[in-house]
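Hi everyone, sorry if this is the wrong subforum. Our group has a chain we'd like a structural model of before ordering constructs, and none of us has done structure prediction before. Sequence below.
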Amino acid sequence: MEYSELFELRKLFSMYETHSLTHSLTHALTHSLTHSLTYLLCRYDIDLSGNIPAYDLVGLLQDIPGSDDRTYTCDEIDAILSQLDVDNLEIIDFEGFIRWWTS
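Answer:
Right subforum, don't worry. Here is the predicted structure as tokens:
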């Protein structure tokens, strides 16, 4: 095997290692974030239904770690609610919120 072929193989292996590591880290971070979000959602789910009232969305968004200084306009809240409350039942389900937040 020539030097150039070895160099190309090493490059490919390095790309694979990087992709694998990135995938593993992303999975771990997503799992950790999902766990944190579920904990927060449970604090708002008083009746243990797996849903929170739409009017709690602003409080929930402010309680997410790292969003201390983030404020949302009424238009942004309306846009978020239109994605999360597609049935217009004025409730937000856990799975939908987690999917939305992690996307």
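For your construct planning: The first strand starts at residue 51 and ends at 53. Strands lie at 51-53, 91-93.
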